[in-house]
Specification:
single chain, Rossmann fold, Nucleotidyltransferase, domain 5, 3 domains, four-stranded parallel beta sheet, 10 strands, 50% helix
Length: 397
């Protein structure tokens, strides 16, 4: 605290939200006591399934209390025009950030989640300022240029992964290189996406009302089923081959429910999932050899599934390219008729007298029409019989 006092001016007040990780909330309480200043805590109920009118009224009323709290602590009138100005720039920042993250939908991806972890610093600390808008405008232009020129963040990108939770900050470079060694690119993550994940709730007509909703609907404040829906949407959007979940010991609210999310993802999308147990800050909780082995095994599963999928797709495509040849045999009381079609187009037809043996007539007319078409019996994929003697044709399939 002595160091903090030398670097920063003493605070007039402290503000915190219960949606923050517990250690941050406790830290705010401690610092408010240390500096002997008032503390405001914003309470946002968890939106397990929806943002109800009751929740909306409760959170919105707290913003009025918050503005009054700031006026009392700062001894000045709250500037609502300034608030709207900052909110507008914050919205512009979020739009830019989403556009930057969306460039990763391209193949190859011009950036990785590890790049996003680095560039997100501005939206966390400078959101609402002109500087962050300038920076993200330039970054977006750079990403678009890389897309145009086909420059991928991972050379020879073959596999695309999604990361869940806060990164393991002290092993970002190692993890980046480890996945890249398998030609795998982490194209998206739930952490950096959370900073623009509530854009659809922003309203220019009622900025403060929408501010309350945005704060309440953040990724960490929704139910597990809702989290899984968001991850599934990201899997589809970024065409992901596998999900990597970081079970983060330093952020339990983010890690609770990950096993349920993993189960839902495996059921709904059938992609492999890898759970890494570590700590975003404590290096002692990271076993490099163990995690390396798990990543190698995880990537082998993805590679095998990808190869199997390619072979299956090739066979389906090859089958579609092959023309389907069918035959029809009609056994009437006087004549027996047969015809061969290729994708519905008539290739050959034959008519003979049925005689006294309907089965023999069916076989004979079939052999003759095959001869006329210049085809062997193995070329016919389906045979259909009609007429009064249809049951005597045993070769139908």
């Amino acid at each position: 605290m002595a160091v903090l006092s030398k670097v920063c001016p003493n605070p007039t007040c402290w503000c915190a939200a219960i949606i923050s990780a517990g250690q941050f909330l406790n830290g705010m309480k401690f610092q408010a006591r240390y500096f002997n200043v008032p503390l405001f805590i914003l309470d946002t109920p968890i939106c397990h399934t929806e943002y109800t009118p009751e929740i909306a009224r409760y959170v919105r009323s707290q913003f009025d209390e918050y503005f009054a709290f700031l006026e009392s602590a700062c001894k000045r009138k709250f500037n609502y025009d300034r608030l709207n100005e900052v909110l507008l720039r914050s919205f512009q920042t979020q739009v830019l950030w989403q556009e930057i993250l969306d460039t990763a939908t391209n193949k190859p991806s011009p950036m990785t989640a590890f790049d996003a972890f680095f560039h997100m610093a501005l939206i966390v600390t400078l959101r609402g300022t002109p500087e962050v808008i300038d920076y993200y405008t330039a970054l977006l232009a750079t990403m678009k240029d890389r897309v145009t020129r086909g420059i991928g963040a991972v050379p020879d990108e073959k596999y695309r992964l999604l990361w869940d939770n806060i990164p393991i900050w002290h092993r970002m470079k190692w993890l980046s290189q480890k996945f890249a060694s398998h030609n795998a690119c982490l194209v998206a993550d739930t952490y950096t996406s959370a900073w623009c994940g509530t854009l659809k709730y922003v309203s220019g007509d009622n900025p403060i009302d929408s501010l309350a909703e945005v704060y309440t609907r953040i990724y960490l404040n929704i139910g597990v089923d809702e989290m899984a829906k968001m991850i599934i949407a990201m899997i589809d959007k970024y065409d992901v081959d596998g999900l990597v979940l970081h079970s983060n010991r330093s952020c339990k609210p983010y890690s609770f429910g990950q096993l349920d999310i993993q189960r839902i993802i495996e059921q709904e999308r059938g992609i492999p999932c890898l759970m890494i147990e570590a700590d975003m800050a404590d290096e002692r909780s990271f076993s490099e050899s163990q995690i390396a082995t798990r990543i190698d095994a995880f990537m082998e599963i993805i590679k095998e599934r990808k190869e199997t999928s390619k072979k299956r797709s090739y066979k389906i495509k090859q089958k579609k390219q092959e023309k389907m040849i069918t035959a029809g045999i009609d056994i009437g009381s006087i004549t027996a008729k047969a015809a061969i079609f290729e994708d519905g187009k008539l290739l050959a037809a034959k008519v003979i007298f049925t005689g006294y043996n309907a089965e023999a007539a069916g076989l004979k007319v079939y052999d003759e029409v095959l001869s006329e078409a210049g085809l062997g019996k193995t070329a016919i994929e389906k045979i259909v019989s009609t007429g009064y003697g249809r049951n005597s044709v045993k070769i139908c399939r």
